[in-house]
Each structure stands twice: as structure tokens, then as C-alpha cells.
Design the sequence.
């Protein structure tokens, strides 16, 4: 089975971290992936790679080491990823929100969206065509492609370093980003700060409580070195709530990986996990309430 793009860093460039959600230092082992491992916080249940590469190392990996190879990988998969992102937004009732925002907006100030980890900007380009004001954040060389080839406003710095003013955005999207970050909690706190009151965040990430993760254990296709955190609906909810968000809905999809089972069986599994909320990937939609 194909795991996504990933290569480990040297063991000496990794260090032990406290639980990103609750600060605890007491863990039990969760997944031993041979060369790296995930532990689970005893008090809040968050699964995290430990030890894990330092923040500076992670940023260096995406911004420099991955280089042109990473851009080719994204370009090759761009159409497929866009389709998946669109399907996830359909599940999460994005178009109803979009309709509301456009009906309330002034003609010369349509709603605005920030896509963090926007890669080559395919989704931003799609949303711009629908009338949104769009901004992206992307630390890899994909940013340059999005700017030059798509004429998008894509910032080549980690989210916080952009110093966006508070109350800037109606919507923040982050697809397959949060599991790559050293400090997902501070990412959510910053997202909360720059969203308007009533603004929404849509977080898409692999679901460690899903059927596939339970079936495949440490062989799970999302248990890769670039994923520093593996969330369940429960642990991501806790993290979002502690950053000041209220959960609006959680949708999951993906029953069996393609190639792992005959297509008739995959169809049944896909249908069932969606109904039961134990799909392989989830999209969590949350709202900034209060200030
Ligand atoms: Zn914890």
C-alpha cells in the first residue's frame, strides 16, 4: 500500500515533548512504527510522536529539503487532492455557510478565506472563481508556484510569522496540515485570533479512531514520519475547545484503502464507516464564539 510522501530525520535531531493538549509528561506507548513511535497521553488521550523532530527541523524539511521533489509530488496529485477537499467540504455543509456569508457581505467586500498549507493553491483558485477573497500560507516551494502560475496571494512563512491582524478572516481551511505541526495547539490559538467572531475553521486530518487505523495498527497508512500527531474526533475536539472554538460538526470518510479489498467490499465499507463516523479521514468544522 502507498504511504504518503515521507522521510525520517536523524534520531539525534529529535527530542521528547510534553503533551501538546494538556502538558502532561505521562504517556503509554501507542504505535511502534520501527524507527519512530507514537505514544498516547494518559490523561487526555492525544496520540503524538515522541520523541519528535524540533520545530526548526520540521520547517527546514518542508521549506528546503523537500524542494522540487515535493512540488512535483503535489502537482502530480493536485487534481485528486482537490476533488477530495471539495468532497470533504460538501460533507461539512460548506456551501450553506458560503451562501449565508455572501448574502450578508457587502458587494465590494466578499467573504475571505485563508487556506493554511495551501500547496499549489488549487483549492484557493477554485474558491476565488466562486467569488471569495483568498489568501494562502505555504512554507514549501509550492508557494512560489501558486504565486507565479496562479497569481495567488500565498505567504511563504509559517502561519504565526505572517502577523495577520486579529479578526481578519471569515473562514480558515487546513487540510492535512495540523498533523504535521510541532505545536498544533498554538496553530489553533492563532487561527482563533485571526478569525472574526462567528468565523469557521475546517480541519481535515487522518482519524486514528477510524476503522482502517484499528485494522492496520502501526502499518496504518497515516502512521508516517511526517505526522507528528494522530488525532481522533475526541482529542481534536478537546484541542479545538481549549483554543476557544465550539465544534459544529464532524464528518468522516474512507472505509478501506483502494487495492486492499475488492471494489464491492470497499463500497460497503465506505458506506458503513461514513454512517458510523469511523472513516479513515475526518473534517471537523468549528466556530469562533465570543471574541
Ligand atoms: Zn494530554
Sequence:
Amino acid at each position: 500500500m502507498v504511504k504518503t510522501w515521507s522521510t525520517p530525520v536523524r534520531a539525534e535531531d529529535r527530542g521528547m515533548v510534553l503533551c501538546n493538549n494538556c502538558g502532561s509528561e505521562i504517556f503509554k506507548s501507542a504505535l511502534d512504527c520501527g524507527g519512530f513511535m507514537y505514544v498516547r497521553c494518559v490523561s487526555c488521550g492525544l496520540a503524538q510522536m515522541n520523541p519528535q523532530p524540533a520545530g526548526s527541523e520540521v520547517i527546514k524539511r518542508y521549506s528546503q529539503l523537500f524542494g522540487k521533489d515535493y512540488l512535483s509530488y503535489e502537482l502530480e496529485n493536485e487534481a485528486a487532492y482537490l476533488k477530495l477537499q471539495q468532497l470533504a467540504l460538501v460533507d461539512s455543509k460548506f456551501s450553506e455557510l458560503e451562501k449565508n456569508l455572501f448574502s450578508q457581505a457587502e458587494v465590494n467586500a466578499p467573504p475571505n478565506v485563508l487556506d493554511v498549507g495551501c500547496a499549489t493553491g488549487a483549492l484557493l483558485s477554485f474558491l476565488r472563481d466562486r467569488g471569495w477573497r483568498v489568501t494562502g500560507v505555504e512554507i514549501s516551494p509550492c508557494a512560489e508556484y501558486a504565486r507565479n502560475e496562479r497569481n495567488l496571494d500565498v505567504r511563504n512563512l509559517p502561519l504565526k510569522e505572517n502577523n495577520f491582524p486579529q479578526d481578519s478572516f471569515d473562514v480558515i481551511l487546513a487540510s492535512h496540515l495540523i498533523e504535521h505541526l510541532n505545536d498544533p495547539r498554538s496553530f489553533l490559538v492563532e487561527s482563533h485570533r485571526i478569525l472574526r467572531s462567528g468565523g469557521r475553521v475546517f480541519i481535515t486530518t487522518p482519524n486514528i479512531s477510524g476503522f482502517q487505523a484499528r485494522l492496520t495498527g502501526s502499518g496504518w497508512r497515516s502512521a508516517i514520519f511526517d505526522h507528528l500527531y494522530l488525532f481522533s474526533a475526541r482529542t481534536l475536539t478537546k484541542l479545538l475547545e481549549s483554543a476557544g472554538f465550539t465544534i459544529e460538526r464532524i464528518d468522516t470518510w474512507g472505509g478501506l484503502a483502494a487495492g486492499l479489498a475488492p471494489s464491492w467490499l470497499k463500497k460497503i465499507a465506505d458506506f458503513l464507516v461514513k454512517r458510523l463516523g469511523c472513516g479513515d479521514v475526518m473534517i471537523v468544522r468549528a466556530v469562533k464564539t465570543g471574541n
Remarks:
- The chain has one domain: 78-288.
- The mean pLDDT is 92.
- The two ends are 45 Å apart (CA to CA).
